[in-house]
């Protein structure tokens, strides 16, 4: 009886070992995530949508408002950037973070990111929408700090440039650039960064 128990225990160990080895072999053959077979997903800009536009206006804090406290405030402009994310791998990958700088024409005005994670199935393409908020006041400050020489070269001034953007962008008449884009992907123990740039329209 004791001998049978020993033989049975040995048989269980052999079967278990074969099962584990088979699983490992299957994982290897199925092309699981590895540094050798990982392909960085493609991130491309599908469109830029004008979520909200409120015209062009600016009030100095010297102007007394009908209600509330005076301040330097300008018209907001809200955009939504829609990206296609194509998984070139034979296994799912996780999009963890996406970040990029936005420029109106050649002027960098904002940097945004999204940490809304999503799984992209193998060989499939998902979409992600990243909102971006602008307003005349903050864009004014940005241009005054970094855009002086460029504005002078264009023979224009900060107010004329802002009015042009806030008037043209809702009609998709100004090129909007996505610069220095970086998307972080994870698959198994791997973490990789895919870079991208784009212009719309």
Using the 3D structure, state the CATH architecture of the largest domain.
Answer: Sandwich
Count of all domains: 2
CATH class of the largest domain: Mainly Beta
Mean pLDDT: 88
Span between termini: 81 Å
Main β-sheet description: 5 strands, antiparallel
Report the order of strands and helices: HEEEEEEEEHHHEE
Strand content: 35-45%
Given as residue ranges, the uncertain stretches (5+ residues, pLDDT < 50) are 10-29
CATH topology of the largest domain: Immunoglobulin-like
What share of the residues lie within helices? 25-40%
Structural class: alpha+beta
- The CATH superfamily name of the largest domain is Immunoglobulins
- The Rg value, from CA coordinates, equals 27 Å
Organism: uncultured Desulfobacteraceae bacterium
Protein name: Late embryogenesis abundant protein LEA-2 subgroup domain-containing protein
Keywords: Signal
Signal peptide: 1-20
Explain how this protein is built:
The protein folds into two domains: 1-30; 31-200, Immunoglobulin-like, CATH 2.60.40.10. 28% of the residues lie in helices and 42% in strands. It has four helices and ten strands, in the order αββββββββαααββ. It has helices at 2-29, 136-146, 148-153, 158-168; strands at 42-53, 58-59, 73-74, 76-86, 93-104, 107-114, 118-120, 125-135, 176-187, 190-200. Strands 5, 6, 7, 9 and 10 form a five-stranded antiparallel β-sheet that branches. Strands 1-4-8 form a three-stranded antiparallel β-sheet. A hairpin with a 2-residue loop joins β9 and β10 (190-200). α2 crosses α4. The radius of gyration is 27 Å and the shape is elongated. Residues 10-29 have low confidence and may be disordered.
